[in-house]
Amino acid sequence: MTRDAAPFSHPFRVAALPPRKPSRFDLRPGRDASAAIAADLGLLGLDGLRFRGELRPAGRQDWVLEADLEATVTQACIVTLAPVTSRIAEPVVRRYVAGLAEPEAEEVEMPDETVEPLPPVIDAGAVMVEALALALPPYPRAAEADFAGAVAAPEGAEPLMEEETTRPFAGLADLLKKGDGAS
Description:
Distance between the termini: 60 Å
Order of helices and strands: EEHEEEEEHHH
Number of strands: 7
Low-confidence stretches: none
């Protein structure tokens, strides 16, 4: 997801944070901000979004963000496109480590996905939107949605309806039988 501006931002300048005590936050985006977040994530609706936690020092230069994410989201059903409402309640943890080098390879296996390099500004609003995106149900489905499979065929052809005819080697047995009869 590449974007010019985040739909919601709540920055903490690391240099201005108290070095010995946590900085608490309780983010509850208003209606306009929630609508912007919903549009950014392709949601039909977003209600009751709340991101509550703290950003605290961890050692001399490192920081930990721990928070609870709560929201009610409405997505389109993957079968019927009917609205599907889900409740999200997720713990969120990010560890910001000073001096952590950015990976240079195109693909890198990350042993701990909560660890990130320490930036000059930690944006709790951006973390909230990212955590919400990761917590969304990937395949929302309405309770009454029934998907028996798509049936399609080119014009003039008969669609494949039976499971046996849709298997990749279904016609192989017929070919072998025809080959036996020809010998």
